[in-house]
Write a structure and sequence with these properties.
alpha/beta, four-stranded antiparallel sheet, 12 helices, 36% helix
Length: 379
């Protein structure tokens, strides 16, 4: 079996926690902490004396790495401070008219719901598609989309059930009706390969603090050429301008690429950390990471079933599996269970009345051993 010890050594948290909660907040790799500290050294020792190079170099590198990760161009990438912020760029800037509609999915994380709701004030209908046992079905989406659909926005991976959607057929559905295909990528990007062109994705947003193994407060946004022509920034900051250092020309046009969605000052410490995190992911390889995560979650699901747990995550088909395993047992309360596991230095979370476990590639079978032993001791 392939050794992942080199990868695991990047995570000091593994020395004192059994950490299985990457769908919430990941532990930061050592190299990402070093990246963040490099900004502190820069700003402490030099202030802005080495600007703009001290800003432009890591920013350019982040765009290049993000583009490599999702098979896009660097000029199609922009930096977000949160998944919500990125999705709000699409929701507030999309070209809509009275009578248009937006298609969403019920019971998704609110980051992919609330940014769209204010469009109702502009006469836009918000249509919700139901989930079925944690799955989002293409047939249901097809019934909701029509020629007045401006966008369909869905999560790559559902935060509760862990269901992973197949983006290709959804993109085809959207494009057949000339709608934009928008993706909340936070629960899948970094865990599974993404090719935005092959998948037909028009717009994607993902904060870095889950499967991308980065810090909170910085993430990746992507916009296709098609979507760039249909989304106008609701907030025009000084950095969105074509010549931002031409301070007194306030009539100049916006940048012609995705950087028009970056209005002002950057989270530079976070950017340097995320650069290091993406370096780690690309070094390991997205396909290898995905295979590793699926092997761990398959093992976990089998162990839990053997111990009397019911697996709620859709895992019958390989293409639907993700890094999230949702499970319950009728004799255990998930919230109190998570607290009791925490006392044993095992980190999971409770979601929807069930236990949610989410290992990344740095986890291994020994972590699953500890979890199962702790569950056995508790009940």
């Amino acid at each position: 079996m392939e050794s992942w010890q080199w990868f695991r050594r990047e995570f000091p948290a593994c020395t004192h926690w059994t950490y299985l909660n990457n769908a919430a907040v990941c532990p930061l790799p050592s190299r990402s902490r070093v990246g963040m500290e490099s900004y502190l050294d820069e700003i402490s020792n030099n202030g802005a004396a080495r600007y703009p190079a001290a800003v432009e170099e890591p920013l350019s590198r982040l765009r290049r790495q993000g583009a490599e990760l999702i098979h896009a161009r660097p000029d199609q990438m922009f930096v977000v401070r949160s998944t919500t912020e990125g999705l709000a760029v699409a929701a507030t800037g999309i070209d809509v008219r009275d009578g248009d509609n937006i298609v969403l999915v019920e019971h998704e994380f609110p980051a992919n719901i609330r940014p769209w709701l204010p469009l109702r004030r502009r006469g836009v209908e918000i249509r919700f598609v139901a989930q079925h046992n944690g799955r989002v079905l293409l047939d249901d989406l097809a019934k909701a989309v029509d020629d007045r659909t401006a966008a369909l926005s869905v999560s790559f991976v559902q935060f509760l059930s862990g269901f992973r959607i197949d983006p290709g057929p959804v993109a085809e559905l959207c494009h057949d009706h000339d709608a934009l295909f928008v993706v909340d990528g936070i629960q899948g990007l970094g865990a599974f390969p993404v090719d935005v062109t092959a998948m037909g994705i028009d717009f994607l947003s993902a904060d870095g603090h889950k499967w991308l193994l980065g810090p909170e407060g910085v993430g990746l946004g992507y916009v296709s050429d098609r979507a760039l022509n249909r989304i106008t920034p609701a907030i025009e900051g000084w950095l969105a301008a074509e010549r931002p250092f031409d301070f007194f020309d306030v009539t100049q046009p916006l940048k012609q690429d995705a950087a028009r969605f970056e209005p002002g000052a950057y989270n530079l410490a976070g950017i340097r950390a995320l650069v290091a995190s993406l370096e780690l992911l690309l070094e390991a390889g997205p396909e290898r990471i995905a295979a590793r995560i699926l092997a761990l979650t398959d093992d976990l699901a089998e162990r839990l079933r053997g111990a009397g747990w019911r697996i709620l995550s859709p895992r019958d088909r390989a293409e639907e599996k993700s890094g999230i395993v949702l499970a319950d047992r009728t004799d255990l309360d998930a919230d109190s269970l998570a607290l009791r596991l925490l006392e044993r230095k095992v980190v999971v979370t409770a979601r929807g009345g069930a236990m949610r476990v989410s290992p990344h590639a740095y986890n291994d079978a020994s972590d699953l051993d500890v979890l199962m032993e702790a569950l056995g001791a508790i009940g």
